Amino acid sequence: MKIIIVGGGWAGCAAAAEAAKIGAETVLLERTDMLLGTGIVGGIMRNNGRFTATEEMIALGGGDIFELVDQNYRHENISFPGHEHASLYDIGKIPGAVTRYLTGLGVDIRFQARVTKITKDADRITEVITKQGETFAGDVFIDTTGTAGPMNNCVRYGNGCAMCVLRCPSFGGRVSLAGLAGVKEMQGVKSNGAIGAMSGSCKLYKESLSPEIVELLDREGVAVIPIPADLVENHLDIKACQQYALAEFAENVILLDTGHAKLMTPFFKLSRLQKVSGFENARYEDPYAGGKGNSMRYFAMAPRSNSLQVEGVDNLFCAGEKAGLLVGHTEAIATGALAGFNAVRYAAGKELLVLPRELAVGDAIAYVKDQMKTSEGLGLKYTFSGSVLFKRMKELGQYTTDREEIRNRVGDLSLTGVLSSL
User: Does residue 49 share a domain with residue 152?
Assistant: First the structure.
């Protein structure tokens, strides 16, 4: 069985880990020179309902990547406005750790392998072809190309290319595998009718901040610094990460320590930021033009089943943002692991797994699919850490930080370790 995964973000890496672990020959194609995509500059794990989702996946036997991330935290169990028990991974260490882990599992990782063409036989993909002309044939394919960019979308719907970590000018923009296969994809729509959403945070060089702020970040992992009223910039309504669309994130500079200083706003004009005490020498690390804007997302989501099989292409699965308006690393890893598992089951001629809605992960996958059938649903963003989905978790009684309770919940459904073998 040969599984070809296109896109090396968190979802693609989780899919690769799962497929390789249960015995498939696995190839991971990444268009840039590093794995993890926006995860290279992300860092927030286990906050709010993401704790529950993480522990569910571990109990299901598909939490290998989560356990790897747990070994690379800078800070654990911290709180910041609207968020409890968060852990922050080290963005400098995590890409290498994941690359070594996947290589150790036997995953064939190909960098600078931007897929631009495919070959199909009826409703099946038979091979994908990179811009360089290299061909990869497989039994099953997984689309984890995401929904951000390419540059023309950031120009048309955002503030132009802000030179973010996706690095489209260097490696070429995202190309959707589902789109190449002829699948009609969906787009997120804001309340004003505009499509897409802007990435919700950026990075400052920690060494460009005052010693007092650096010391606070190193010690506590979080810094909340009030902004003078005349300098406030409110960009909350354009954020993809609506779990952070709270007044505190407009009225304060909120920083998280992920190695660099993660600034919890889509962008902030540099000349204004440098007027805030402690930020006189502030400089952006990601995106380079973080005073101008950020990457635009949610332009290409694939219609799919709750097993994450893409509609209209028999041997194509999807995960991460490609699977819907799901926001965050936890959401990408969880769907990636399920897609990797079901891709191998499909190749082996076995019944596909649909996670039951009694589980937070299973309910999220099904709920988002249902919501995206409506124009109102396409205007929302869904994450275990806040907004609509976290509220739903609490209403359904799914949210808990009790590991034993989560393990028992999975066990009562006879699903303990189900993702650990074919």
Answer: yes
Cβ neighbors of 241 (< 8 A, separation 6 or more) are 199, 200, 201, 327, 328, 381, 383
> Which uninterrupted H or E stretch holds 262?
strand 261-263
Domain that holds residue 340: 2-156+178-189+297-420
pTM of the predicted protein model: 0.96
Overall domain count for the chain:
2
Per-residue pLDDT reduced to its tens digit, 184-225: 999 998 777 889 999 989 999 999 999 999 999 999 999 999
Write phi, then psi, for 158 (nearest 5 degrees): -120, -145
Beta strands, E only, 18-173: 25-29, 44-45, 73-80, 83-89, 108-110, 115-121, 124-130, 135-137, 140-143
- How far is the CA of 237 from the CAs of 88, 219, 240, in angstroms? 25, 31, 9
d(CA 340, CA 3): 8
Question: What is the Cα–Cα distance from 339 to 306, expressed in whole angstroms?
Answer: 10
Domain match, 262 and 356 both: no
Report yes or no on 291 lying in a domain: no
Provide the pairing of β-strand 108-110 with 115-121: unpaired
